[in-house]
């Protein structure tokens, strides 16, 4: 049986857009968390520096991961067929992401529990790989969504894990890995002080050209695919151009110590990248590499309208509360983190313990 393609209703369009916003929020916020985890061995010269880097995200990293839980839960409730098909075909990749996130969370809590360099080194490795693997694999997954995976009739997965690691998907993974790493560098320049801040700025200047090349290649390939493949997305040419332009300014902004603007530039690039992906995906939620007839559409994968209506009211009530609480958290922890041996200034928080 084929999944019949009909025009999406207003509620289905709304929840496709809301799920896109949830993923955008996750990648914007968790992106710099991943970047800090990837970079903290390179911006640190001793354990105190490592604690400075980690403490820049310490109060907020677990709150940022709520966006992932919400995005996953909303996908399950609003588009259960999308959720089921992804977990059927991407189960090994998602298992690796889950394992990485678990060990990453444990590293935040465990590395300081014992005064032992060997103990800390193991948890530092867990923090590094627990940040790098999801940063890579999320890009691979979303690139696969739009470029096509082996889905047959009734959204049945017919491929293997190696069908997920095609050249386009790998470029997508390298794009998110490099972009999140750069995002973390600009965040450290904004939130750390002293040598950690200086090293993060130098790394950002070195990473920016590499990231620019990779992300530009992914944007170009994505836009070309949307015009030549059997599905037609809604990617406006201006959107990738704006993202590339913002990314191209990061090295200069960092060099000129405009750290806030550099962070906003990497954040804007992340938003344009994943907005491009979601617009290119519409009106599908998964593209079949076997036949256009097997594409999983918004309409075919959506829940009953009553479910979507109830979810809409819940989102209307609770989303502003969550946004207000998380904004308040960032405001409370807005100051820079410093070493205990640095002089305290107005822009600093208390020294790390």
How would you characterize this protein structure?
By secondary structure, this protein is mainly α. The protein has helices at 10-39, 47-57, 61-64, 66-78, 80-89, 91-110, 117-147, 167-191, 194-228, 238-248, 250-255, 259-281, 298-301, 305-332, and strands spanning 284-286, 296-297. It has a two-stranded antiparallel sheet. Helix 1 packs antiparallel against helix 4 (66-78), helix 9 (194-228) runs parallel beside helix 12 (259-281) and helix 10 (238-248) runs antiparallel to helix 12 (259-281). The protein is globular and about 65 Å long. 44% of the residues are buried. The mean pLDDT is 86.
What is the compact description of this entry?
With 353 residues, this protein is mostly helical. The protein has helices at residues 10-39, 47-57, 61-64, 66-78, 80-89, 91-110, 117-147, 167-191, 194-228, 238-248, 250-255, 259-281, 298-301, 305-332; strands at 284-286, 296-297.
